[in-house]
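Notebook B, p. 112. Complex prediction, attempt 2.
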Amino acid sequence: MAVPASSAPSVAARAEQWFQRHQEDNRQRLKWVLIGSALVAIYPFIDEWLNIGLLGSLIPMFVFVILAMGLNIVVGYAGLLDLGYVAFFVIGAYSNAFLTSPNSVFVQEGWVPGWLQYFWPAMLLSWIVAAISGVLIGAPTLRLRGDYLAIVTLGFGEIVPDFFTNAQSVTRGPRGIGQIGAPTTVPLWGDNEITFSTLDQRNWFLLVLVIGLISLFMITRLHDSRLGRAWQAVREDELAAASMGVNLVRTKLWAFALGASFSGFAGSVYAGYVGVVYPDQFQFNVSVVILCMVILGGLGNVYGVIIGAIIIGGFDRILAEALNTPLHWVGEQLSLQFMVDHSVTSDRFLIFGLSLVLIMLLRPGGLFPSRTRAAEMHPEDDDIVDQEREELANVSGRV
Amino acid sequence: MVAEAGTHAEPAARPGKVPAILETRNVTRRFGGLVAVDSVSISIPKGSIAGVIGPNGAGKTTLFNMIAGIYQPSDGEILFDGQVMMKAGGSFGSKSRRPDQVMALGIARTFQNIRLFANMTAIENVQIGMHCRMKTSALGAILRNSDVREEESRSRVKAIELLDYVGLGGHAEATAKNLSYGDQRRLEVARALASDPKLLLLDEPTAGMNPQETAGMTEFIYKICREHELTILLIEHDMKVVMGISDWVAVLDHGQKIADGNPDEVRGNPQVIEAYLGKGAAETAEQLASRQGDVPGGRSIGVDDA
């Protein structure tokens, strides 16, 4: 580079300054994440102490948070609308089942080495299997753009669970696979140890929290990297990105593979927690719910997505249930029989749909939009609008 | 040979004797029945500023897009730095490259209608330009080991250097779409330079600029060519700009090359004047030119491109 040598130190210093400001933002966020997760980590103890009994609902909810973070890579970062994300969730869950359940054909045939029949290695392998399946499903479909990609992924989201329903000799069909291995006991100092039986809700909760934090850590690092920048460039302008040296297929495949890999985590933990997998757990609406979480929270902003997932998951698993009591009470007071008989849980999808419509109309970037994502959704330049508003205000003030 | 090379102290001034950095041989591009580019052969000397001009729909942008890897030629071949870069011809022997591979070879471009990553900051835009020169993998991004951190820090420093170079040092953190029009053009150039190209393709670098900005941009193109060791190929409508800046000019009309050579040769070519102004205009223009000593049709001819 033919750059005047005299400006070199100040250039390096400015680059460093810029970087430090970014780091400061990240540190600030990390602080909040740590505070938040510390509070969350305390919850199970409170729950057990006060006998609230919500852990059973919260654990699957946190699994969905991990799923939403993974989908956010595909939809939020890379801008690829994936309507069949549930496919990778199925694959993650079944991988774990195949490896650890005594009912699985693979174990019965003796194809799975003994050391792999435990939860921990199976979880890592499920992670890899899901990533590979992301590449396999992505490779033929990623040449498509926009709407077409959405339709094809929708198809895959239907095919994969159907495959697990119909491939009876391997998957035992609709009966599913039970007795999936739970994590082996982790010995600690002295007599202390961490066990993962169905009674150890607290430990499961903490396990999911730790996996969620690991996922968050990996995802934020990916976002602030060469790959993350390439995702954003591809999302904004494919042609320009390609002309600037970004390999489109490879970049999109990475998004698909990494997005899928986190659902491998989520799927295997979910399978281990529930102890049984069967295809009906993975209907199309799971894809939609996860997508709702991402959109509600804010496409492209992983922290927003986490909050969106907690809101929707919380409503889905806890609040809808809890709303029944007051609704029935009001119904009895007004002697309206239909209100007494009604169950809010059956309205879940009505409410998801409504909230999605409202979000799109009122806050298209989501509740906590990422800076750039929000800007992309407002075609008109906000600055210009503000400027015009200001000018108008001045004029009317003068008159 | 060495002695002879020594005499080429000003390669730009004597384009004929310098090896070509880019050469197209009978390149043709058909869209259905339409022949957008018809057997065009041009050869661009290393280190020069070359211009491609022509009226609307002459096939300039199509030719450009073939060089940049967006279209494949239907016929003919394109050589870059002595190597066959693209070649049409059946299932055997054909060679094609994607735009990102072309970029990796050392050809960077800008766009006629600015295509920045509008919602990314200036510095991030430039960093994308370095994408193919960086190595960090997904695993590296997660582990963020010292190599990765070093590479990122180098890319930041280089991006700021480039922004300084194009005069945008103060806007490093501005979102690209909030920059003024001229600054956006400069940012596009900085983004293209980030990949250390050997050949820079500029698609109408002065489109939509007023005379003052145009003069600034012309000066800037000179400066880039002088200070970086690269060749510049530009498409322009503004004859004044092209004639003033280029060492070598090719004129396209209806997909065919009708003239090439140094600006003075091309300027007087009756076919060129005819293509621009229609039949009968050639004589008038010649008279005008001799009277005013100016370029025929010196105003920008046609603003938009087909």
